[in-house]
Amino acid sequence: MKGTHLGELEELILLVTASLYDDAYGVAIMDELKIRTGRKLSISSVHAVLKRLEEKGFLDSRYDGATGERGGRRKRLFRVTPQGEAALRQARDLRNSIWDTIPTIAFDNQPG
Amino acid sequence: MSPQQPPTWIRQLLTWLCQGHLTEGILGDLEELYAYELPEAGPLRANLRYAWRALGFFRCTFLKGLSQPSTLGLMMWKNHLKVSWRSLLKHRRYFAINTGGLTLALVCGLFAAIYALDELSYDDMHLQGDRIYRLYKEQWNPEKGTRFAKAGNAGRLAPAAVEQLPGVEQALRVFAKTTVLSAEKRSFITENVMVTDSNFFHFFDFPLLQGDPEKALVAPASIVLTQSMADKLFPHTEALGRALEGLADHTFTVTGVMADPPRTSHLQFTALISWSTTLENGPLPRPFLNNWVSQVPSAYLMLRPGADPAEITAQLKAIQDEHLPERAAHYFPKLQPLAEAYLHSQDILYARGVKQSSYQFMLVLLGTGLLVLLIAAVNYVNISLAKASKNLREVGIRKAVGSQTHDIRQRFLTETGLQVVLASGLGWGLLWLLLPEFNQLTGKSLPYSLLWHPYLLLGGFGFGLALTLLIGLYPAMMVGAYGITDLLRQHYKAVSGRSLRQGLLILQYTLSIGLIISTLFISQQTRYLISKTQRPGQEQLLVLKGNVEVQQKAQQLVDQLKTHSNILNVTASRAAIGGGTFSSRILAEGQKEPFSTQIFRVDGAFAETYDLQLQAGRFLDDKLATDTLSVIVNEAFLAHTGWETGVGKTLQYDGFPQIYQIVGVIDNFHYRSPAQEVVSPILMRLHPHGRMCITVRVGEGDLPATLAFMASAWESLGSRTPFNYDFVDDWFARKFRSEMQMLHTSTLFSSISIGLCLLGLFGLTSLLLEQRRREIGIRRVLGANLSGLTLLINRPFVGMAAFGFVLATPLAWWFVDTWIEQFAYPISITLEPFLVAGAAALSLSFLTVSALTLGTARANPVRAFD
């Protein structure tokens, strides 16, 4: 059984996939990620992460939407599964709960 | 859909290697990015980026069969590797024999591969190359039924083709010449100075570095220099726009500097001269380049897309017949694709300024390379099979603790793979070291970069894999297939593979005996050809080659040279024996048809200097005023006319009124390479003009001093041509370059093959002796003598060698028979080389086996029972 831990890049890509909803495929995710975060990933890295997420059960995929510029090939479209959604929520909750414990004064770095 | 597509082979590779359900998504994404980038990045950069991205997908996650490496599988592989390495080290002797043999064979195979890669890469630098054809002609002799291919055509044919044939887009004529180029008091004898048409830079894609490609070769007396020639002539200044002295002492203007023609171009030149120079109204009119009769320049045609070369060939024939109807039955213009101009043109005679190579030699090299590899592979299989018994206990234990058959196979394939990888690495390294030697052997200059040619790397990988499976699979299956009890009891009989082993040994004997026989015949044929051109004392002959201005002072030079004590004879002539000839059409007395005859313009000392043998009559005499109308012919001339005797008969040049009388007949000496041509008719006459070759026979005295004397005599002429000389025997030696190349290579490869055979035999015998150690010990105790034991072990090998000999004989016969067919003077196939090769193989293998047997048999028998 693979671990269900969600790495940082995995989390970002999962989020982007969710936000693109019905048009989430390799190139679109790569572009969106670049726009949102400024991170330039290679297409193969994006595919590698998508495959890993699918193996963990956070994503599922189907083939649809062929276009001419793809040489008539269909897109492999991804959608976040309920487990994926749960993992994302869990990650956000985890962060929020830790944020909640940070005392305001901890970031008060003004020179005294 | 965009017209520009990314490289198909990358797509194919991904399709093969990636997991099926992922492929479509990956390829689609790649193609989308490609289509997106293409407009701004251009096809080259888009392709590169596509390839780079595709490379990213070659990782375990995406590839078939590797995506989920099982920990157990990985551990097993690690174990296999470790055990294989240990097992190899334990049996060091066989490890060394196997790896060494494979390495040696791989060096040969790799060399053959890069040689072929290089040969096949010629002339691929021209963008429109697939539409370019070389124009040559077939010349038929209807009476004799003979056919020759010749490079030369009428100078008017190619321009007429462009004018009249819609299928011909443009044409380019070339005429290469050796001449002296001089500038700023520097003079160089320059080969392959090429007169060519003004569209040269439109036709071919040779880059012009300086100058205007449209105009460089338009004006008369324009010359475009290659970079290296420009550096030689104008080392300190810019060459462009400068004047130099060239062809026939005329002054040319440098209108361009171009890159040297690449090594892989069949067309080789040092400078280009505008064709307009040679026209009737040009500074150097050359009618023989611009009429319908003379067949001198070569030409290339560029056809329009879709034009049918066969149709154009027929149309060219029609044009030619219209202007030269009297030669309609003889001349047939032909087209040859540019891609074949280098490797398939050895039968096209009198081509100048071109590099040619033998396709046949490439095939022979590839073939023998493969045979040598086959021999090494056989060694491996044989030794592995014989050694299998040593592994039986390991296999038994593995099986007892639960190994599956495929695990055992993997274990032994790993051992093979390890050796193949090692041998490939060593072979590569060795070839790297030996490349200069190989280059010398084959007369090539293959660059090191060929060792990294992608085809070679890819092919090498595939070949290594195939080799591993081929030579490893059978032994691996053999040991995997036996029952545990048999294996643990080390039941030797279980693993035999004896008939296979014997079959393979016979194959090995067949191949190496066949190679030796062929080499012996190649050597005989080559020596036979060389002996034909060797006349006693020829090494004492050297030729000083002059220019137009030298010929006028030839007599002065001859007289001056004669004064030296170490100079025995001097003669001035237009052509020297071995250095090229001139031909004319001669009408002999009583004949209707004139025929082509090689003309030697000589002086009275020619026969004596060259030591030519007179068969009848006398030689020409300078002092006899009547001898200006006397000629000498050779025996081939008589054979052609069918005359019994020649002396007293008359002849004339076709179309000229003068009648010449034959006063002497000389024997058929060879003045060209005897490889392709038999001696053809020649004619000699006294003629003071055009004597540019001064042949000198030197004595046994101090050669350097004599040369220095000749040089000073030459300088006193005040000629622009630098002092230069060639030895006549060097000229002939150069003509046998391709035959010598064949001889050297086949000698090397056949020695390697017999060496590998003996190496394998050595390994096999020592394994067999180990297994039969006890038997030999017992025989010794019971009183067997050494010679009896040696014969006992030798018997099966002798039988197999004899069988191999029987099989090799017809194969080698067939090869040699096909090979010698191409020569004008083939040797006859005698029995001797067959017997020599058979005896050599038999005695060498007998010696190897006997030496090993004696070693074992002479050991104290007690040791056999330790």
In whole angstroms, the N-to-C terminal distance of chain A is 52 Å
Query: Helix share of residues of chain A?
Result: 40-55%
Tally of DSSP helical segments of chain A = 4
β-strand percent of chain A reads: 5-15%
Catalogue the unreliable spans of chain A. none
Alpha-beta classification of chain B: alpha+beta
Q: Please count the beta strands of chain B (DSSP E, at least 2 residues each).
A: 23
CA radius of gyration of chain B is 35 Å
Number of helices of chain B: 24
Largest interface (CB within 8 Å) is between:
A-B, 24 and 22 residues
Helical residue percent band of chain B: 40-55%
Form type of chain A = elongated
Rounded mean pLDDT of chain A is: 86
Total number of β-strand segments of chain A?
Answer: 2
The shape of chain B, in one word, is: globular
Oligomer: heterodimer
Mean pLDDT of chain B: 87
What can you see in these coordinates?
The complex is a heterodimer of chains A (112) and B (866). By secondary structure, chain A is mainly α. Helices cover 53% and strands 11% of the residues of chain A. Chain A is built from four helices and two strands. Chain A has a two-stranded antiparallel sheet with strand order 1-2. In chain A, helix 1 (8-20) packs across helix 2 and helix 2 packs across helix 3 (43-56). Chain B is α+β, with helices and mostly antiparallel strands and 866 residues long. Helix content of chain B is 49%, strand content 16%. Chain B contains 24 helices and 23 strands. In chain B, strands 1, 2, 3, 4, 5, 6, 7, 8, 9, 10, 11 and 12 form a twelve-stranded mixed β-sheet that branches. In chain B, a hairpin with a 6-residue loop joins strand 19 and strand 20. In chain B, helix 14 runs antiparallel to helix 21 (737-771). Chain B is globular. The termini of chain B are far apart. The model of chain B has no long low-confidence stretch (mean pLDDT 87). At the A-B interface, helix 3 of A face helix 2 of B.
